[in-house]
Inverse folding.
């Protein structure tokens, strides 16, 4: 990837929430739809703020000045997305059926995750960020926009999705970097973290695992049951997460091995029967996406493809029904 060109694109494609025409009139919808749509956009604003905090932490950690500048624009993007999502929530809150607040599992997960990435390996943090961006980009944003089916949502989501495409491309780029020999050598040369830092990292990771399952259930899987009833987009996103984890360089990473071991135990008829709920809580996802979602041809392609090719293939999913 040419980081200079990516940075130019980041600056060129900036926009403001005020560029959108908010004078439109929302389409007619029933009380149940209005409540759900306003709640989803309210939660989306929180998700975007979380993404901004994660990109800020990545910006702080990288040494490359171009990457720092890129992540700086990503933080600006996410602040703008949060603002747009909240304005969409307000736009569709026509009848004020209730007072809306962010899902409590979102508000619990956010500080736990932000705290965790300050202590955990950047590679683990990037793995979660990449998975989250795939879910957001391929599944949630597209499905929510299709469900709302209104010109105001379409206009905002078009611009948000354009930003998210840049983010996902860099997610794959950073995944490749964190799996590289260069980064492994950097880790080997660094002094071991003090014991108290290691303990804090372990505790932070435990909190992330504890809060992840209810967060994903309420903020991702719950809404997707309504806006993506056949699960087509959800499964497409998780297939890309699984295929990324099967690339040799990624599969060798300790965190990937840990999660794949948990998945293997969950799908084992004996351990899955005995410890299924515990394993599902550790993995943090819905049972539908813990099973293998790809075939042998897709696996072979993923192992041959470059990270850039995989990112491009994932992005193309946004344009499929």
């Amino acid at each position: 990837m040419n980081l200079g060109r990516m940075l130019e694109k980041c600056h060129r494609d900036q926009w403001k929430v005020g560029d959108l025409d908010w004078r439109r009139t929302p389409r007619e919808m029933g009380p149940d739809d209005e409540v759900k749509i306003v709640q989803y956009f309210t939660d989306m604003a929180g998700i975007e703020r979380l993404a901004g905090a994660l990109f800020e932490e990545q910006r702080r950690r990288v040494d490359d000045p171009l990457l720092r500048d890129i992540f700086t624009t990503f933080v600006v993007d996410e602040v703008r997305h949060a603002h747009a999502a909240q304005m969409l929530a307000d736009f569709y809150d026509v009848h004020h059926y209730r007072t809306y607040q962010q899902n409590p599992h979102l508000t619990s997960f956010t500080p736990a995750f932000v705290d965790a990435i300050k202590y955990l390996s950047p590679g683990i943090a990037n793995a979660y960020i990449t998975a989250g961006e795939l879910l957001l980009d391929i599944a949630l944003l597209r499905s929510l926009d299709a469900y709302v089916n209104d010109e105001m949502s379409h206009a905002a989501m078009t611009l948000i999705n354009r930003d998210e495409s840049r983010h996902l491309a860099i997610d794959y780029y950073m995944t490749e970097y964190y799996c590289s020999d260069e980064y492994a050598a950097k880790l080997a040369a660094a002094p071991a973290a003090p014991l108290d830092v290691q303990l804090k990292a372990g505790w932070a990771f435990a909190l992330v695992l504890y809060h992840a399952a209810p967060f994903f259930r309420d903020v991702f899987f719950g809404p997707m049951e309504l806006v993506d009833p056949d699960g087509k987009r959800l499964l497409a996103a998780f297939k890309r997460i699984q295929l990324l984890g099967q690339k040799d360089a990624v599969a060798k990473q300790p965190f990937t091995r840990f999660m794949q071991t948990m998945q293997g135990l969950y799908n084992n008829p004996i351990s899955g029967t005995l410890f299924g709920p515990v394993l599902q809580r550790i993995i943090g996802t819905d049972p539908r996406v813990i099973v293998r979602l790809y075939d042998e041809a897709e696996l072979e392609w993923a192992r041959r493809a470059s990270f850039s090719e995989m990112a491009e293939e994932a992005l193309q999913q946004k344009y499929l029904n």
